[in-house]
Amino acid sequence: MKLLDGKNIVLGVTGGIAAYKACDLTSRLRKAGAQVFVIMTKNACEFVRPLTFETLSNHPAVTDTFARPETWEVEHIALAKRADLFLIAPATANLLAKAAHGIADDMLTSTLLASSAPKLLAPAMNTGMWDNPATRENVEILRRRGFHLIGPETGNLACGDSGKGRMSEPEQIVAACAEILRASETMKGLRVIVTAGPTREKLDPVRYLTNRSSGKMGYAIAEEARLRGAKVTLVTGPVVLSSHPDIERVRVESTGDLLNALTERCGECDLLIQSAAPCDFTVLHPASQKIKKDGSGELKLILTETPDAAAACGAMKKPGQVFIGFAAETESHVAHAQEKLKKKNLDLIALNDVSRSDIGFDSDDNQLTLVLPDEIRELPKASKAQSAAMLLDAAEELLRRAGKACTRT
Predict the structure, then answer these.
(1) Residue 276 belongs to what H/E stretch?
(2) Interior angle at CA 192, CA 248 and CA 256, nearest 5
(3) CA nearest 28: which of 2, 66, 47?
(4) CA angle 145, 123, 362 (to 5 degrees)
(5) Do 166 and 207 belong to one domain?
(6) Is 380 a member of any domain?
(7) Listed residue (129, 142, 184, 171) closest to 385, CA to CA
(8) Where a domain ends, among 129, 158, 183?
(9) How confident is the model over 157-171, as pLDDT tens digits?
(10) Which range marks the domain in which residue 235 is found?
(11) Is residue 23 among the annotated active site residues?
């Protein structure tokens, strides 16, 4: 059986010099067993002629929204429904901007907007364009909406510059397509709860204690579980992130709120992933009015421990359930994680070193160490979306051992 047997892939090609790589990509997708339906923008046709893609794909290359179709159907809707995966390679800065803001002014963007298939973008552009704050913001919007991105890679660019902006190689993109489609529906029918973000502990009516958690890791996990077909509940502290409409979102403020939300729900889930960063301490006696400076130069607070939500859930765990926790550590990392694993009745701890500036809190990347009762797995540094996928691969192994069906096709 070939890697992509029976899969329909809509390939969007935009107007960049990397469009020539899309020819090789089309050929590789066909050899992997996929049917490929190419949509080209007007500018893409200036780099590669449609006939090339028609020959390689054995299907007409669509270039014009208003062309008379061979069959009587609304073509961009028909292609949107046909796609098992929507791939755009190369994806220019212009395409990223249009996709992020819902612009549908040509055949490619109209079909993209109409499609509910998983979407993979392979950006390619000048380094300055990739690093521009507008592009970075557009990429973040797309990631929050569940788009997958591969690349861009670092190297020599067509303009003569050297830096990040090269489109990933066709063989890498084919592998990414297979991975996305492989993940699809493997958790269908399972109920997953994910916690994300910080909690806040009230100091007075306008101030609170909190931490640096952005919630990005938890939101990435929730989205990956959704893409795998799970029914997902996201219990989230106060963050500025958005989630897919299909994900049930439960907002919490304090660690006590988090405990209440979880104890109400965790008995019915198959998988619980606790990636939130709840405050460990709260003010014993919060002030009823805003605390004012009194000239003494100091303020004394009496802190007390917050309830341990992970331990409370662990005490409630039933046979067949899989509970995963996170450990954000700055020293003695593995030892602390192993202690937490036993103490809180968890099946796995996802450990990250938050003393590093390149991963962890508020970063787009992470590097997890998976601590299990009988094994320690070091995962590579990756985006939080990729880290979420690797974590859920491990979670699926545990679910299968617990008798839950996580079927790979």
Answers:
(1) none
(2) 70
(3) 2
(4) 50
(5) no
(6) yes
(7) 142
(8) 183
(9) 766 677 888 999 999
(10) 191-401
(11) no
* 352 beta partners: 328
Residue 143: left (phi > 0), alpha (psi -120 to 50), or beta? alpha
Closest among 226, 39, 232, 41 to 145, alpha carbons compared: 226
Apex 14 CA angle, 8 and 18, nearest 5: 100
Active-site option among 159, 177, 279, 406: 159
Residue bearing tokens 């040509």 = 106
88: closest CA among 50, 158, 159, 38? 38
Tell me: do 152 and 216 sit in the same domain: no
Same structural domain, 35 and 65? yes
- The secondary structure element, H or E, covering residue 391 is helix 384-401
Phi and psi torsions of 204, nearest 5°: -155, -175
How far, in Å, CA of 382 to CA of 385, rounded? 8
Find the length of the chain: 409
316 and 195 in a common domain: yes
Separation CA 409–CA 398 (nearest Å): 18
Residue 31 has pLDDT above 90, yes or no: yes
pLDDT tens digits, residue range 83-98?
A: 899 999 999 999 999 9
Tokens 């913001």 — which residue? 137
